[in-house]
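Long-time lurker. I teach an intro course on protein structure, and each term I like to show students one example going from raw sequence to a predicted 3D structure in token notation. This year I'd like something fresh instead of my usual example. Would anyone be willing to generate the tokens for the chain below so I can use it in lecture? Attribution to the forum is fine with me.
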Amino acid sequence: MSSYNFMRALVLFDLPTDTKLNRGNATRFRNYLLNDGFTMLQYSIYSRLCPDRDNANTHLERVKKHAPHEGSIRMLMLTENQFTNMEVICGKKTEQEEYISNEQMLLF
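-- Reply from a regular --
Happy to contribute to a lecture. Here you go:
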């Protein structure tokens, strides 16, 4: 299976944290993402590897069900090939990004 079949689901969000209720909602949402197999790419950007678009769409529907009612949440789907070709301008790739990139190189 080539990396073009794999999808990367990215959840990008900006959630209010000005009240105790909002902080709790934001924490519950982040914990939901982690429990659903997403990993933190940056503080409010989480990523999940999916075997295909159908699976990525399943996770999109799950994210919608668990999203707080306030704030801004977006989900972007990329092919794994597009994701691994992401250019890091400042900083470095996460340990998981390095691991997946190296593992995929072994597939070819």
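Some talking points for your students: Strands lie at 7-14, 39-42, 45-50, 72-79. DSSP finds four helices and four strands in the chain.
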